[in-house]
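If you are new to this repository, start here. Below is one unmodified record pulled from the training split, so you can see the exact layout before writing a loader.
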Amino acid sequence: MKRILLIDADILAYKVAAMNEKTFDFGEGGVACVLSPEKVVADSQETLDDLVSTLDADGYRIILSDPKKNWRKNLDPTYKDNRKSAKKPALLMDVKDFLYKANQSTYIKWLEGDDVMGIMATNPERKAEFVIVSEDKDMRTIPGLVYHPHRPEQGVMEITRDDADRFLLWQTICGDPGDGYPGCRGLGKTSLYAQDIIEGDFDDPLDMWDLVIDAYASKGFREEHALLQARLACICRWTNWDPNKRQVRLWNPLHLLYKNQ
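And here is the target side for that same chain:
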């Protein structure tokens, strides 16, 4: 079976664009920004070629987010609002345009690139061995093969179904400030609830959800709030996607019992 890399192109594009932008401040309001539009193309391709070589892959797919619509915004309009004021590299769209046009690329309306990678990697009818390549820790909520290029010493990690479910519920408790959802306010990574999700023994997968409910209740939150945070944290798997209607199936605790994900 061929090994195909699923490249998180949102992160790759940002990093390459940022590397090729230099700003010089001459004082008294004098600022010059030096851009290298030609070099971003070469650097992007070099990065892709290096990944294929390093991971002994047969090819790759470029995965991009829908730039206009995001299904999570329908659940929480404030999702990722914290990023609106962040200054983006001037060459970001140049890199994305190159990646989209010059490579085998995929994006699906309403979905983030993370969701597309998760759906593809867990498709039971996939014809290749997919390796998700991303610096985003959220991809550890997807069962399968994951490679973090910023931590090459970890190699290609095999994420089991149990590992993925535990990490999703851990994210549900801890939240993700980078994505703008809080999780259970007042609890964090070092809380006993978060640690128990990762390390505890559970006879029934739904016992993990009961622990999440207890965590939220300890801070005065109802199960409905916990469910919203879980849905924001959930990177789509094949079971979260209706390929006919092209719609997301929202996560619910019974998904922990699904045999195939």
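Two things worth knowing about this chain: The mean pLDDT is 91. Residues 161-257 form one domain.
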